[in-house]
Amino acid sequence: MNRATPRLRAFAAFPFVLTLVTYLVLLAAWGDRLPDTLATHFSGADSARADGFTGRTAFAAVSVALLLGLGTGWTVLVRRTALWGAWATAGFTGALLVLLLRDNLDAADPAQVVSPLTNLLLGGAAAALFALAGGALTRLAPAGAGADAPGAAAEGPRLALGASEVAGWSRTTASRPLTVLSLLALAAVPAGLLLAPWPAALLALLGLVIGVPGLALARVRVTVDRWGVTVRPSLAGRPRVRVPLDEVTGASVRELDTAAVLADYGGWGYRVRADRTGLVLRAGEALVVRRSGGREFAVTVPDARTAAALLNTLAERRGKV
């Protein structure tokens, strides 16, 4: 599993510490120029005018809590490839908070405070600069001890199999929350059809769009055999995902907890990222298949170690591992 190293966590926490210190220093330096009640919410087309207000002490407490919460979350969940995101978040949030203080300086009436829309552009510029700094630091943050490095899959487990023996492996994996959600969505279909044709029919359409693919992915069968890896719904042959054996360069096992699922795949279900795809239905062990193009495919399934061992053995026979 690609766990964050202490250095990586420190790199992720640093921009939030920097932003928090800067914000507190400005808050103290501008204390005499800030009103007791700050304009904190704005609306309007060109230059947004205040329509929401917060006491200075309450706003300071909420701002500090926001930075601490975001910083803690990124520090705990950060992955090496997402370090730039931690820095961008800190830069954008810190810039908006500082700009909000600036807009309230010397305000006699908070209702007259104006927050120009250029603040969003300045916040975006700060996020971009911070993201570049975070991206540059990525090369200084070593991958975790359990991270998969190039060639690591080729050193994965093997299954003792004779030259003339043929073997296959198959298991099912399921997600109860996705099953319940899909059934509830499908239950909305007849309700939508029985109600007025419009707009209640949208309820039926939404139920079908969510329920049918959701139910198909809620319980799947993973098979490893001489053709490669196949993942398909347990109750149907389609849709399916297949990684042909001649595209497999290695297989390994990775333990995925909730933090790893969110950081590496962005959530549950069928996920597509820049360098990997995955069907993540539950926390626990996952079969990770490295393809010849350098991309990875992962699926969470029980007994993934046996699947990886068999796949490595079969791929080795074909001279891929």
Automatic annotation (TrEMBL):
<feature type="transmembrane region" description="Helical">
    <location>
        <begin position="12"/>
        <end position="31"/>
    </location>
</feature>
<keyword id="KW-1133">Transmembrane helix</keyword>
<keyword id="KW-0472">Membrane</keyword>
<feature type="transmembrane region" description="Helical">
    <location>
        <begin position="58"/>
        <end position="77"/>
    </location>
</feature>
<feature type="transmembrane region" description="Helical">
    <location>
        <begin position="202"/>
        <end position="222"/>
    </location>
</feature>
<protein>
    <recommendedName>
        <fullName>DUF1648 domain-containing protein</fullName>
    </recommendedName>
</protein>
<feature type="transmembrane region" description="Helical">
    <location>
        <begin position="178"/>
        <end position="196"/>
    </location>
</feature>
<keyword id="KW-0812">Transmembrane</keyword>
<feature type="transmembrane region" description="Helical">
    <location>
        <begin position="84"/>
        <end position="101"/>
    </location>
</feature>
<feature type="transmembrane region" description="Helical">
    <location>
        <begin position="113"/>
        <end position="133"/>
    </location>
</feature>
